[in-house]
């Protein structure tokens, strides 16, 4: 290829790339109203967006892959937590994160009730945007993995290894799969490390704690043994509330109450079998 041919090739390639870029840009803008549910942008959502920008939330948080990574990604937070949790958190973040334990503390923004409602509406709208499954998973900020090193019992560890086998029928191994793949994933809120409470309490030692809970006169649920208690906690999280202001508000648990319809009876049984191994 001589210099003249190379020049024509470069010019032609640039023009072609430009046309492709413009075409993709036009196609993206054509799809924006449908992908973003633009018809659902209410004045309250707009107020929430303004609150988000005014308080520089993006300096710590991320939505749609844009922002900082010091604090959790909030793209799907409204689906993972729900309005009661978000409202209580925004009113007093110090109840949820301890600077000594987590090495971070969300600043108190002193938001009005109207601003909080608007911000929740904005985050709810964001969570329903068709973002092509991005981000692919919640971003953890505590530095504590869900597995928690040696937190898993030998039975759970054996189940995890067996899970790699396509023919595996071990309920514990199947339960571990549910624990990590349910929507929202249990790992988004619960650690398996002793004392490492996140948005929800650590599940390390749940079997031992359950026996104490069932024997306590303060227990309000209807479970009679470990398996039924775990199932009740998953399907009816408000039946018995774990002590601690950060897990509930006004008698309602922050844990999603959708697992009863989202998980099959078999999946619930497997999940209970897996969690029962944490003594």
Automatic annotation (TrEMBL):
Keywords: Electron transport, Heme, Iron, Metal-binding, Transport. It holds the Pfam family Cytochrome_CBB3. GO terms for molecular function: electron transfer activity; heme binding; metal ion binding. Residues 43-127, 170-279 form the Cytochrome c domain. The keyword Transferase does not apply. The keyword Transport applies. InterPro entries: Cyt_c-like_dom, Cyt_c-like_dom_sf, Cytochrome_c550/c551-like. PANTHER family: CYTOCHROME C-553-LIKE (PTHR37823:SF1). This is Nitric-oxide reductase subunit C. It comes from Hydrogenophaga taeniospiralis CCUG 15921. The lineage of its organism: Bacteria, Pseudomonadati, Pseudomonadota, Betaproteobacteria, Burkholderiales.
